[in-house]
Design a protein that fits this description.
rod-shaped, 9% strand, two-stranded antiparallel ribbon
């Protein structure tokens, strides 16, 4: 639509300026009255068509930054550090994404889940095996 509008407008303008040289009346100037609105409508349709992909691109670029910022502020899903390798994992991770070590230690006495780097059970105080 933009291309057709541009073509009609170019023809109309060429006819208009060519009429100055011969002091005649431009015969195809009416094409500008069709071409210019076609350019505007085609541009609006093109902008609307690219709105979805542009929004998805911006969301993909901005979302990790927002997630990191909120995580640093302690809002939202946190992360935990692996006691074995120091890798960063999701707070609900069972095993480390980097080394595969268990993220929680289970107390052999009371079966309470403890942090992966805990040396003693948070519930009964028993020593946790290495």
């Amino acid at each position: 639509m933009v291309g057709i509008g541009l073509l009609l407008t170019i023809i109309a303008m060429a006819d208009f300026f060519a009429a100055f040289g011969g002091f005649g009346v431009p015969g195809n100037f009416w094409m500008a009255f069709i071409g210019l609105p076609l350019i505007g409508i085609g541009s609006a349709i093109t902008k609307f068509a690219y709105l979805g992909p542009a929004s998805r691109y911006v969301a993909g670029e901005v979302t990790p930054t927002i997630r990191d910022t909120l995580g640093a502020l302690g809002i939202g899903g946190g992360t935990t550090t692996c006691a074995s390798c120091g890798g960063s994992n999701a707070a609900d991770a069972t095993y480390c994404d980097d080394c595969g070590a268990p993220m929680r230690r289970v107390c052999p006495s009371c079966r309470t889940a403890n942090a992966g780097d805990a040396k003693f059970c948070k519930s009964c105080g028993a020593d946790l095996p290495v």
